[in-house]
């Protein structure tokens, strides 16, 4: 739905479509202008030979039926063979140059689109599905590739044939030229009317396919959930419904395309019949020779074919226009978090205070406040825990530190510098995050750990794996550190994935740590060893812990209790228990739940 609304906003009047796409593509065409110029030259040479063909055929026919000169007939046949050889060579050069250039431009467009997606803020991805975005990178870009590699060259070729053949027809016989052109208004009418319908139909097909891809991706990623709830029939139905909707839209597009080309074919060849009839009468009257009629007929067919091809190209261009709009709309997206024009450098390493000054935040205009009136300073080396009920704003507050979002009001500063004045690369390079449920890349264990630092050695990777208590299960794996973890790490347990994520952050060696219950999935012994590694790592560093299990915050220097986006309590574990407020109630409830679980387990 969002995609269709975007398309409505970006809709371009049909007459402006070529200008719109050319204007957006020209910066990408400019570096390849010499290759395009050479391809155009070869196209003109090939087209010129094509235009000369009916004239040569005229002389060939007259040599056979009027002059009856065998040697002249042989010479003309050899000339035709030579012309076709040259035309084949020119066609090869033109098709290769344009095809190669189109491939390079599309490859660059795909890279730029992916690079741009990586710069967008997390809030953008909450509004777009993965299936939709991958559809933009694949099917939509493929349609643009068709424009660059085929449609542009055909547009030039058929335009050359149309105007060249019309010029020669006019020189040869003006009356027959008017008969040939009589079909042009009808063809242009059908091209505009059906071209717009094809554009809308093609856009709908792409939207439906993107929706079906989203369903398929969600089902595959959540395959364990699907199978554990025995919901295979449901997911099969959802995907089938999506494909059926795409099929219905595609059939509608096929019907529109069929009517379009059927009407164009009828009008075009009806015109050829009229030329044949009128030309035949002129031959009978002795006004023209048979060779002249054949030559004229070939030019008339060339004009008709050019008009039909141009109408077809217009329809295809209209279909590609929807894809072009979506691709360039995506490239035009700007994240809510932006790089400063003149970033300030961070002070030298050694720990910086992190300050929240009257911070308010909400995820969109009109939505409720997720954070309100946050006043906080975290000193270097201080361990601060965030606790509170679900939805209190803990993860939101932590997400402001690496600038996944910016405050709606107020400001955050690091070492006395507003975060919005720092380079995102430098800021995020100084922060290490261990999420509660880390996702790994579908590569090897070594590559996942090495993701924390470019050029990390095997010795460094093994050292941090040992510190994160991951070495023991890695060494038992079939291929050790070269074992592949599967998509998103599905071959490993949650606890194993978490220890790899911890090792990755240890390798990064950041100045600031954000731990989202980083030890929640570890057994008691592993948790103890990992916490020892964290105690060394946190020395002299600013550390923020999002705590869901309150037993993990007892050694924090301060505990901040959030409720409905506000800081309602601040103190140490003991102070907050003595206060008897929200923290004490949460702790007591969790303590009772733990006791009940222990009694059940015996």
UniProtKB/TrEMBL annotation:
SMART domains for this protein: AAA
A GO cellular component annotation in the UniProt record: plasma membrane
GO MF annotations, alphabetized: ABC-type oligopeptide transporter activity; ATP binding; ATP hydrolysis activity
GO biological process assignments: oligopeptide export from mitochondrion
Protein's organism: Candidatus Kutchimonas denitrificans
Protein name, UniProt field: ATP-binding cassette domain-containing protein
PROSITE patterns per UniProt: ABC_TM1F, ABC_TRANSPORTER_1, ABC_TRANSPORTER_2
ABC transmembrane type-1 domain boundaries: 37-319
Main location: membrane
Coiled coil: none
């Amino acid at each position: 739905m969002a995609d269709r609304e975007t398309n409505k906003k970006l809709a371009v009047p049909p007459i402006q479509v070529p200008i719109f796409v050319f204007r957006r593509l020209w910066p990408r065409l400019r570096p390849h202008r010499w290759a395009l110029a050479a391809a155009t030259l070869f196209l003109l040479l090939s087209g010129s030979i094509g235009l000369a063909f009916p004239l040569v055929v005229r002389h060939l026919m007259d040599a056979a039926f009027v002059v009856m000169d065998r040697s002249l007939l042989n010479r003309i046949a050899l000339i035709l063979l030579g012309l076709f050889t040259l035309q084949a060579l020119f066609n090869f050069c033109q098709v290769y140059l344009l095809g190669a250039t189109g491939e390079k431009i599309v490859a660059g467009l795909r890279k730029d689109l992916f690079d741009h997606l990586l710069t967008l803020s997390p809030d953008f991805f909450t509004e777009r599905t993965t299936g939709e975005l991958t559809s933009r990178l694949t099917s939509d870009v493929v349609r643009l590739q068709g424009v660059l590699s085929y449609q542009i060259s055909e547009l030039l070729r058929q335009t050359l044939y149309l105007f060249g053949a019309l010029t020669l027809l006019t020189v040869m016989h003006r009356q027959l030229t008017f008969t040939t052109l009589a079909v042009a208004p009808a063809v242009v009418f059908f091209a505009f009317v059906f071209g717009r319908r094809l554009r809308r139909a093609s856009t709908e097909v792409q939207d439906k396919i993107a929706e079906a891809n989203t369903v398929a991706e969600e089902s595959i990623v959540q395959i364990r959930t699907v199978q554990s709830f025995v919901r295979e029939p449901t997911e099969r139905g959802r995907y089938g419904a999506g494909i059926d909707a795409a099929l219905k839209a595609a059939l509608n597009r096929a019907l529109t395309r069929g009517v379009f080309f059927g009407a164009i074919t009828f009008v075009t060849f009806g015109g050829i019949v009229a030329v044949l009839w009128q030309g035949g009468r002129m031959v009978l009257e002795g006004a023209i020779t048979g060779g002249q009629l054949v030559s004229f007929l070939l030019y008339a067919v060339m004009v008709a074919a050019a008009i039909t091809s141009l109408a077809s190209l217009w329809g295809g261009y209209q279909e590609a226009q929807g894809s072009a709009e979506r691709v360039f709309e995506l490239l035009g997206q700007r994240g809510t978090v932006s790089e400063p024009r003149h970033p300030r450098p961070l002070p030298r390493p050694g720990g910086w205070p992190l300050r929240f000054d009257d911070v308010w935040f909400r995820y969109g205009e009109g939505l409720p406040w997720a954070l309100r009136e946050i006043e906080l300073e975290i000193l270097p080396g201080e361990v601060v825990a965030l606790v509170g009920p679900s939805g209190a704003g803990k993860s939101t507050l932590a997400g402001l530190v690496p600038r996944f979002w910016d405050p709606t009001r107020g400001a955050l500063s690091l070492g006395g510098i507003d975060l919005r004045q720092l380079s995102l690369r430098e800021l995020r390079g100084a922060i290490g995050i261990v999420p509660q449920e880390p996702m790994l890349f579908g590569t090897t264990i070594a590559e996942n750990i090495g993701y924390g630092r470019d050029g990390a050695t095997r010795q460094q990777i093994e050292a941090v794996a040992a510190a994160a208590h991951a070495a023991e299960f890695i060494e038992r794996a079939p291929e050790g550190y070269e074992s592949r973890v599967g998509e998103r790490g599905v071959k490993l347990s949650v606890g194993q994935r978490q220890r790899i994520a911890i090792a990755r952050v240890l390798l990064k060696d950041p100045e600031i740590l954000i731990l989202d219950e980083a030890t929640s999935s570890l057994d008691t012994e592993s948790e103890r060893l990992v916490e020892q590694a964290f105690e060394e790592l946190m020395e002299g560093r600013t550390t923020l812990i999002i705590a869901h299990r309150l037993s993990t915050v007892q050694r924090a220097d301060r505990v901040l209790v959030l409720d409905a986006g506000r800081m309602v309590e601040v103190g140490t574990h003991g102070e907050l228990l003595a206060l008897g407020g929200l923290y004490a109630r949460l702790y007591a409830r969790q303590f009772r739940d733990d006791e009940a679980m222990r009694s059940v387990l015996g």
